[in-house]
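#random but structural
TW: two for the price of one
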Amino acid sequence: MPFGPRLDRPSAVGDEGRPRETSLGIVAVTVVALALAAGFAVGRPTFLTGFALVSGLAAAGVALLDRDTLGEKIVGHLCFLPGAILLGVLVALYPGGQTLLIGGFALALLGTASCWADVASDEPLESALSQGILSYVFGLCWLFGSGIVLAGLFLCWQLATGTTAASNPTAAAIGVLAVVGLVAAAVRVSLRAFPIVQLTPRDRRDAVRATLGRAKRALTLTALGGVGTALVSLVFLATSSPALGLVPGAATVVGALASVYVLGPLLAVGTLALLAAGVAVGARQITRQFDERKTRTVAGAIAGAGYVVALVFGVVPQTAVLVLLSPILFLVAVLLAPLAVFVVVGLALIAVRLDVFPDRAGGPALAAAGLVIAAIGADSAGLPAPLVFACVAGALVVWDAGSFGLGLTAELGHRPETRRLELYHGVFAVGIGAVAVLGATGLYALRTTALGPAGNTAAMTAAVVGTLVLAALLRG
């Protein structure tokens, strides 16, 4: 039975992407145990392990973005970018000045999740970066497009209410002409989205196509005539000319046309036409067969719309006070947070391609590096010295167990049963780590007893010495 879920798809033999399950289980238990111990030390036992859910979301999102189907890519988008942003925000906003400690364990948990999903390598990182940027750009397009649409609807509403309330028949007539022109333009644009000719029987398509062409020309002329006449007629409002006031009965006719009972249905027709056109275009795009490039584009577009919906209905109501007090700060945070994620992923990708960061062993390396950073943070925060030693030793155990599992995967694949071998190696590594921690703790206690409080610098010095000795024992 596997220790955890699989999001990668390895081959039978020779796939070097993900360590074996038992080795990864040892890595996960080590990281979680240290996170729990650090949580108890800071007085919040389960807070650090809560990062595991967010880290898992981000790693699962990267793995799903490497899949081929549209649905999996959409779910990957909605997991990757929000999960990474939330992880960074939780680390940055943690109170108490313990950023190194919190950030180190967040990296360790993220590295562990990356091991399970096999995403800390070149291709998944590149795919996540390119598709994440695509969904972010689409999100901005949806956001600004929605703002433009809302502004247009507001202006149309103001035009309609101003027309119905106008006491000057000339002003009311101009408003009626503008509304008719805009509604005709909306219907004309929406006709392009409907497959009217394609849904018509073949023997009638020529006649329907001709009728549709005449209707489009009529709508175009109506739109141009209505809006153009309204704009030209604005000159009558800038002069003292009575205009329609000179025409007998014109005020009565214009008053009837400018009523709610006429303008309301007209605006409803235009709005419903645009909504129906949007639904038709969306349904056509979703049900169409895509190649890889189109699938990525459509998934990014849908994910961008999802970001906007989550922002409007989820984030904004929760941060209404911030929006009212500092809307610029809020917008900057919303716009720059994804860019920070892209910068971090891009730097990780560059590090992998320059061989600064191991390609196939990226997950264990990230988890080990996170524990080393957590050890530095624990020392800076004045946490007990045994915890500092345990974090350093745990980093080496994580790297050793992860690299051993990767070696087995490269040699044997995922099918052969190697649990006993992995358990033997893992227990041996954990045992050496425990002995090293106990020895370093004893030496530190002896030093503080003989010389008085030695400070945190002595703890880190002993931890570095223990790191070198433990590395020689584990890798020798």
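TW: number two ↓
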Amino acid sequence: MGVLDNLALGLQTALSLQNLAFCVFGVSLGMAVGVIPGLGAIAAISMLFPVTYHLELTPALVMLAGIWYGSSYGGSTASILLNIPGTPSSVVTCIDGYPMGQQGRGGVALLMTAVASFFGGSVGILLMMFFGPLIASYARELGAVEYFALIVLGLVAASTVAQGSAAKSLAMVTLGLIFGTVGLDMYTGAERLTLGIFELSDGISLVALAMGLFGVSEIISSVRQVKAAEVGKSSVGLRAMKPTREDVRRSALPMVRGAAIGSFFGTLPGTGPAISAYMAYAIEKRLSRRKHEFGKGAIEGISAPEAANNAADQTSFIPTLTLGIPGSPTMALILGALIIHGITPGPQLVSEQAPVFWGLIMSFWIGNLLLLVLNIPLIGVWVRLLLLPYHFVYPAVLTFIAIGVYSVNNNVFDIQVVLAFGALGYLLRLLDFPTAPVLLGFVLGPLLEENFRRAMLISRGDPLVFVQHPISATVLALAAALLVLGAWSALRQARQGTALPTPETD
């Protein structure tokens, strides 16, 4: 099939009544959870993940993806109006978005973030359309040895490239790998790490783990921190949203550069929209002739990072769908949705599940158009949401979590697992351990083990097979280099920390 045939097939799939309805629902919910500080896309996706058990694959993916990229649109609203980022990637938007709001230009900032988000998302979708199938065609030549190496690289990169301690991230990846081995051995049928609990014979539920780590722990952490605030409504009316020609001129090139940066970093494991936004802002500030305006309401300071994080949202689907290697916890849940529907993630998805792949891509276009059209008229709704006291929100969220996890297997034990992982997630937050690598290790662990054991069977137990294949040897060398780089960076930061003089007290 040619490109036009694939696009026609995808458009036909995306415009079906069921898929269109779930696209509208997903992007609308994504905007809402992006606006509400302390909730986030990963918690919302975790809560709705049980619903995917009762849906067909395409509408399930369309809904989860809509929540993911829709949250980026909504995340900038709280940043501009309250100086509280709705999502991690919208932290950068606070720097110049909130000062614009204080200057009475909040409407202009909201409109330009919507336009920049749509532009960045469109660039990401185009890259996925043209490069996704190309990557998948080359990936069909890869075997178990190469896939093992790629998964190792993904886990290492997600641990060492992202912000925070690389050692702690690697420890959390290992913890996730351990959780992934709980249950019956796939080859021998022997029980592993079940502690004699019969309910763990089938392994730990992905839904329970995700809801506990990201839903319950997020509520515990946010319940005393997120407060309602007053919002100045005079600067968010439709008349106040019209940008000047100077605003448009100054935003054009930053949006292009931001989309390019986000498209690149979105495909890399462990980076994603947050780092893309930071990089776009830093580069724009360095290139600008108006450096003194940054931090005081520079329009470039919101256009570039918003284009970057939305482009990264879209291109992050490329390695997830074409290689079966997620680079973020959200993409790990998308991968989990594929697995529970009996679909093997990887290059076969593009050829054997063409309606699913192309239908999802075309739903991105529909979703981004909906977000562009709906974001501005719904500003009043988002303002009312921000004024809602959080102690009215979290009991409803906890109720939905309990109902959702119970509906998967009709098993009270799964609710107990959610509570256990919620406590674990909150403890990890107190100790400053990242929770995202746990989910990545949990989802990729079985795939890592399966490809490792398959490679050992093919090579008759010779571990040198991983360095005898050129591709796997190169990929493992990159993983080793990232480990060394992470260790070196940690040592350098430790030395700088001890070298800093202690401040004198008055």
